[in-house]
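During the reporting period the student researcher (J.K.) took over the structure-prediction task from the postdoctoral fellow and processed the backlog of single-chain submissions. One of the processed entries is reproduced below for the supervisory committee.
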Amino acid sequence: MSITSILSPRRLALGLAVLLAGCAAGPDPVPRLGSVTPPLFGDRNPAQFAEPTPARYAVHGIDVARFQDSIDWVAAREAGVNFAFIKATEGGDRRDVMFDDHWNGALSAGVARGAYHFYYFCTSPEDQARWFIANVPKTPGDLPPLLDMEWNPFSPTCAHRRPPADVVQDEMRRFLTLVTAHYGQRPIIYTTPKFYRENELSAFEGYEFWLRSTAKTPEQVYTGKPWRFWQYSSTGIVPGAGGDIDLNAFSGSADDWVIWLTQRRL
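J.K. obtained the following structure tokens:
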């Protein structure tokens, strides 16, 4: 299914007009949502990727959490941060202490923003969905919510809770169903090679994926799995952000980005 096939022509035209209107309105010190700024990123430890390399993709962004305690979002946007995935919650009772700062800063700089939840296997999916919903506002224009699915080796209570694949997938669906119902958008699923393989997520359908692969291309690691976002580095250097930061690419062209935003944000 193409990115435009589920949109009516009238809705697509209206959405494109909304996103692009700012670009024709004259000079603005902050790039507009939907406009694409080329990436001016460095990498402390760059990987040698086979084709297609991250540089092939036009639209790049970052993901952030409490470890990034101060970001000049305007500088980051001007350097090519077109979108940001921002950690909001984990488990059933933890809220990222930097969520508000990052959430508001991204918006003020014209960065498309989406909030993510880090999943715990010692708390029910219903409780985790309610916690995420209680802490992430439902704001028109935001990107879809994101669900971070990976094993957690650091939790003192959940580190060794690794249920079988059928249980993992059942819990994912229960969380995703509740979050979809509240926000009116299907969440995007983030995962890692190990978690993807061990939980048979190649067969998990109906959702867009954000895939981590910092040494090989997604095509090499997640053979045959369509992806929307690719996390290709954890050692990025981005103007306005101190220290290492995760870098991500969108799967399409600059025009595809505008269309996808229209599809997912209106």
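The committee noted the following: Strands lie at 42-43, 60-64, 83-90, 94-95, 112-118, 146-149, 188-191, 209-212, 229-237, 245-250.
J.K. will present the remaining backlog at the next meeting.
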